[in-house]
Amino acid sequence: MTVTGGAGAAEVLSALRERGHTVAAAESLTGGLAVAWLTEAPGASRTVRGSVTAYATDVKRDVLGVDGPLLEERGAVDADVARQMARGVRDLLGADWGIATTGVAGPDEQDGQSVGTVFVAVAGPDGTDHVRRLSLDGDRAAVRAGSVRAVLALLLRELTGNAGAKDTEHNGGN
Fold this sequence. Notes:
This protein is α/β, with parallel strands linked by helices. It has a single domain, classed as Maf protein (Alpha-Beta Complex). It is 40% helix and 20% strand. A 6-stranded mixed beta sheet has the order 2-1-3-4-5-6, sandwiched between helices. The chain is globular and about 40 Å long. The relative contact order is 0.18.
Protein backbone atom coordinates (compact mmCIF):
# COMPACT_ATOMS: atom_id res chain seq x y z
CA MET A 1 0.00 0.00 0.00
CA THR A 2 1.51 3.31 -1.03
CA VAL A 3 0.40 6.55 0.54
CA THR A 4 1.22 9.82 -1.14
CA GLY A 5 -0.33 13.24 -1.00
CA GLY A 6 -3.80 13.54 -2.47
CA ALA A 7 -5.41 10.13 -3.01
CA GLY A 8 -3.41 8.33 -0.28
CA ALA A 9 -4.23 10.98 2.28
CA ALA A 10 -7.85 10.77 1.17
CA GLU A 11 -7.77 7.03 1.92
CA VAL A 12 -6.51 7.74 5.45
CA LEU A 13 -9.19 10.38 5.96
CA SER A 14 -11.87 8.03 4.67
CA ALA A 15 -10.79 5.32 7.12
CA LEU A 16 -10.89 7.85 9.95
CA ARG A 17 -14.35 9.10 8.89
CA GLU A 18 -15.71 5.53 8.70
CA ARG A 19 -14.80 5.08 12.35
CA GLY A 20 -15.86 8.56 13.45
CA HIS A 21 -12.27 9.23 14.53
CA THR A 22 -9.97 12.23 14.42
CA VAL A 23 -6.21 12.68 14.06
CA ALA A 24 -3.58 15.14 15.24
CA ALA A 25 0.04 15.36 14.11
CA ALA A 26 3.28 16.10 15.94
CA GLU A 27 5.99 16.79 13.41
CA SER A 28 9.66 17.50 13.73
CA LEU A 29 11.74 16.87 10.58
CA THR A 30 8.63 17.00 8.37
CA GLY A 31 7.80 20.51 9.58
CA GLY A 32 4.05 20.26 8.97
CA LEU A 33 4.21 18.28 5.72
CA ALA A 34 2.12 15.36 7.03
CA VAL A 35 -0.77 17.56 8.06
CA ALA A 36 -0.39 19.51 4.81
CA TRP A 37 -0.85 16.28 2.84
CA LEU A 38 -3.87 15.37 4.96
CA THR A 39 -5.50 18.76 4.58
CA GLU A 40 -5.07 18.74 0.79
CA ALA A 41 -7.79 16.09 0.63
CA PRO A 42 -11.45 17.15 0.58
CA GLY A 43 -13.24 16.56 3.87
CA ALA A 44 -10.13 16.93 6.01
CA SER A 45 -11.87 19.32 8.38
CA ARG A 46 -14.07 16.45 9.61
CA THR A 47 -11.10 14.41 10.81
CA VAL A 48 -7.96 16.54 11.25
CA ARG A 49 -7.84 18.26 14.65
CA GLY A 50 -4.57 20.09 14.09
CA SER A 51 -0.85 19.78 14.46
CA VAL A 52 2.20 20.87 16.40
CA THR A 53 5.45 21.46 14.54
CA ALA A 54 7.86 20.59 17.31
CA TYR A 55 11.13 21.29 15.55
CA ALA A 56 12.96 22.36 18.69
CA THR A 57 13.71 19.88 21.47
CA ASP A 58 12.24 22.14 24.17
CA VAL A 59 8.93 22.25 22.25
CA LYS A 60 8.84 18.46 22.26
CA ARG A 61 9.33 18.57 26.03
CA ASP A 62 7.28 21.63 27.03
CA VAL A 63 4.36 21.40 24.59
CA LEU A 64 4.07 17.70 23.79
CA GLY A 65 5.16 16.37 27.17
CA VAL A 66 8.13 14.30 25.99
CA ASP A 67 10.21 13.24 28.97
CA GLY A 68 13.10 15.69 29.51
CA PRO A 69 15.59 13.11 30.82
CA LEU A 70 14.81 10.89 27.80
CA LEU A 71 15.60 13.78 25.45
CA GLU A 72 18.81 14.55 27.34
CA GLU A 73 19.94 10.93 27.37
CA ARG A 74 19.01 9.81 23.84
CA GLY A 75 18.31 12.99 21.89
CA ALA A 76 15.24 13.77 19.82
CA VAL A 77 15.81 11.06 17.19
CA ASP A 78 14.53 8.08 19.12
CA ALA A 79 11.65 5.59 19.06
CA ASP A 80 10.43 6.49 22.55
CA VAL A 81 10.52 10.20 21.70
CA ALA A 82 8.34 9.53 18.62
CA ARG A 83 5.95 7.46 20.75
CA GLN A 84 5.64 10.20 23.37
CA MET A 85 5.17 12.85 20.68
CA ALA A 86 2.26 10.89 19.17
CA ARG A 87 0.63 10.39 22.58
CA GLY A 88 1.26 13.99 23.54
CA VAL A 89 -0.33 15.54 20.46
CA ARG A 90 -3.29 13.16 20.67
CA ASP A 91 -3.95 14.27 24.23
CA LEU A 92 -3.12 17.95 23.67
CA LEU A 93 -5.48 18.36 20.71
CA GLY A 94 -8.18 15.93 21.86
CA ALA A 95 -7.86 13.55 18.91
CA ASP A 96 -8.52 9.83 18.75
CA TRP A 97 -5.21 9.23 16.94
CA GLY A 98 -1.86 10.92 17.19
CA ILE A 99 0.89 10.62 14.60
CA ALA A 100 4.49 11.76 14.97
CA THR A 101 7.68 12.14 12.95
CA THR A 102 11.18 12.73 14.27
CA GLY A 103 14.47 12.15 12.54
CA VAL A 104 17.36 13.48 10.50
CA ALA A 105 16.61 15.00 7.10
CA GLY A 106 20.16 16.29 6.64
CA PRO A 107 22.49 17.54 5.52
CA ASP A 108 24.30 16.59 8.77
CA GLU A 109 23.81 13.84 11.32
CA GLN A 110 22.02 14.68 14.58
CA ASP A 111 22.15 13.13 18.03
CA GLY A 112 24.58 10.52 16.69
CA GLN A 113 22.04 9.44 14.07
CA SER A 114 22.83 9.43 10.37
CA VAL A 115 20.89 11.33 7.73
CA GLY A 116 17.80 9.37 6.77
CA THR A 117 17.25 7.88 10.24
CA VAL A 118 13.61 8.54 11.07
CA PHE A 119 11.11 7.33 13.63
CA VAL A 120 7.39 7.54 12.90
CA ALA A 121 4.74 6.73 15.48
CA VAL A 122 1.01 6.29 15.80
CA ALA A 123 -0.88 6.41 19.11
CA GLY A 124 -4.44 5.11 19.11
CA PRO A 125 -7.57 5.67 21.16
CA ASP A 126 -7.19 2.39 23.03
CA GLY A 127 -3.80 3.40 24.41
CA THR A 128 -1.77 1.30 22.00
CA ASP A 129 0.98 2.76 19.92
CA HIS A 130 3.31 1.63 17.17
CA VAL A 131 6.67 3.01 16.13
CA ARG A 132 8.68 2.30 12.99
CA ARG A 133 12.33 3.05 12.43
CA LEU A 134 13.14 4.09 8.89
CA SER A 135 16.40 4.32 7.04
CA LEU A 136 15.75 6.57 4.05
CA ASP A 137 18.02 7.68 1.23
CA GLY A 138 17.94 10.91 -0.70
CA ASP A 139 18.06 14.62 -0.15
CA ARG A 140 16.08 16.52 2.50
CA ALA A 141 12.94 16.58 0.37
CA ALA A 142 13.08 12.83 -0.27
CA VAL A 143 13.65 11.99 3.40
CA ARG A 144 10.81 14.26 4.49
CA ALA A 145 8.39 12.90 1.87
CA GLY A 146 9.34 9.31 2.72
CA SER A 147 8.70 10.05 6.38
CA VAL A 148 5.22 11.40 5.64
CA ARG A 149 4.37 8.42 3.43
CA ALA A 150 5.52 6.07 6.20
CA VAL A 151 3.58 7.70 9.04
CA LEU A 152 0.39 7.90 6.97
CA ALA A 153 0.81 4.28 5.87
CA LEU A 154 1.33 3.23 9.50
CA LEU A 155 -1.85 5.06 10.51
CA LEU A 156 -3.78 3.49 7.64
CA ARG A 157 -2.59 0.01 8.67
CA GLU A 158 -3.73 0.68 12.23
CA LEU A 159 -7.12 1.88 11.03
CA THR A 160 -7.66 -1.04 8.67
CA GLY A 161 -6.37 -3.76 10.97
CA ASN A 162 -3.19 -4.54 9.03
CA ALA A 163 -0.83 -3.52 11.83
CA GLY A 164 2.36 -5.23 12.73
CA ALA A 165 3.89 -5.40 9.26
CA LYS A 166 7.50 -4.67 9.97
CA ASP A 167 9.22 -2.41 12.44
CA THR A 168 11.99 -1.15 10.18
CA GLU A 169 11.83 0.16 6.64
CA HIS A 170 14.88 0.49 4.44
CA ASN A 171 14.98 2.50 1.26
CA GLY A 172 18.00 2.34 -0.99
CA GLY A 173 19.98 -0.21 0.99
CA ASN A 174 20.93 1.76 4.13
